Amino acid sequence: MEDKDVRVRYAPSPTGIPHVGNIRTALFNWLFARHNGGSLIVRIEDTDQARTQEGAIQAILESLRWLDIDWDEGPEVGGDFGPYLQSERLDIYDRYARKLLESGAAYHCYCSAERLKAARDEQSRLKQMPVYNGRCRDVSEDEAKASGDTDIPVVRFRVPTGRTITFNDRIREKVSFDSDILGDFVLIKTDKFPTYHMANVVDDHLMKISHVLRAEEWLSSTPRHLLLYEALGMIPPQYGHLPIILGPDRSKLSKRHGAAALLDYRGLGFVPDAMVNYLALMGWSLDDHTELFARNELVEHFALERVGKTGAIFDITKLSWMNGVYLRDMPAGRFVEDALPILESKLPPAVPRPLDRAYAERVLPLLQERIKTLEELPEIAAFFFADEISHDPAALIPKKMDRDATISALNAAATNLDPLESWDPDSLEALLRPLAPDLGIKTGQLFGALRVAVTGRTAAPPLFDTMSVLGRERCMKRIQDAVNLLTYPTDAG
RNA sequence: GCCCCUAUCGUCUAGCGGCCUAGGACACCGCCCUUUCAAGGCGGAGAUCACGGGUUCGAAUCCCGUUGGGGGCACCA
Fold it and tell me: Coil, helix or strand for A261?
């Protein structure tokens, strides 16, 4: 299917930090826009004065920026169809509400919130559909006002009865609803702000939106929107309802599932390209085997036809794997840029700052292919930067060796190492590899003891590279410390 | 309660009537490589295609029903 003159929008409400699912919707809109050479509009739906949160808009834009999702119209960039904050468009909605009032497609309702709440409770008690019971629907304005219990009316849409609304969803194909279950919904609230339904329809029309790609939770309000377009004499956009992202328990992903805000993942050491790649695969796929996509490949291949219908559980394990792939494929220079700030802030306070950049540039390549997230870095890099490391005597002694044998092996290594002229990996290996058979032990045993002596860990990057980067002084001191520890064990140890 | 959507390995998914004794990936388990850890290579286990009826020479693929899951039913979006 050809899609021409594509104008899509990402229309979040600034009620908090955007979640993964929310940004996935933004990503799909972006991919669709870029694939078709269209535009992405960002529109802030701040029509709920009570729930609007300070800083939320910044968090939204920051999330988009982190993933490098750029928008053609909206906050900060402007555009020909602004303003892009709904709270600045109140007069526009008012104008359309009047139109509907005049044509009889809408009416004033003088029922108070309390009364409606009571009615709803009663309805659900009787196991009925909790919709507006239409008290003000079929009486004159004066009668409604007279029998009402509030002076400030809301504007309600008069939903036609006995209609079947059918539409062709781009993802779900044919969907239909019976208008009788809809209930007359509110268009303009008592505070003069529009509801989502009203603002959404008016703005999508005015902003010439061609496709509405939104989460599945909106599917059942689509008939309302279609009816509104009809009453306004406007042509509706095409709709596509995206599958929802779920938590491990299969309910909509939310805070109680742990990291749910997109930006949480930045803090957890994920890189944006991996995040974009993974998110694209939440509900979309190209074929039966490709899953690593560069951004431009995503744009090139993205198609609504290949978006799935079922909710997808967000699997951080697979995301981690993918992040590891991106980290390993990253040019060393980029990796250093990404890694340095984390090291700078998360290494123990005892490590002097700022870090020695040249030294870090030698350390980081040894670590790059050993982590899945940047957050793992400080922990495995610590021994490179710390002056003092602690040894676990038990770990120091290799399998099938005893304490004395370990001490002599370490001493022998130190003695041989001492006169070594150049402290590079090849020289170190040339010297140490033959030493094991001389001592009557296996290379694995010698190297193992040295590794723990020099790094304090049983798992570390390749020994000779590690020793070379650490430098002669640190290595010799740590070997000596290990020998001392084994020779004079402390009671506490 | 009502409405809508949906249903393939634990998870993400391929499959759009015969290429399927169901393919890939993550995770898991072995083996190889190897000084450890990673990475990589090879192999394994893992889905009676939710269930029951149809349609058809033939169904994971089409239709109906059941069940499960999700979403919605506000002066929230």
Answer: strand
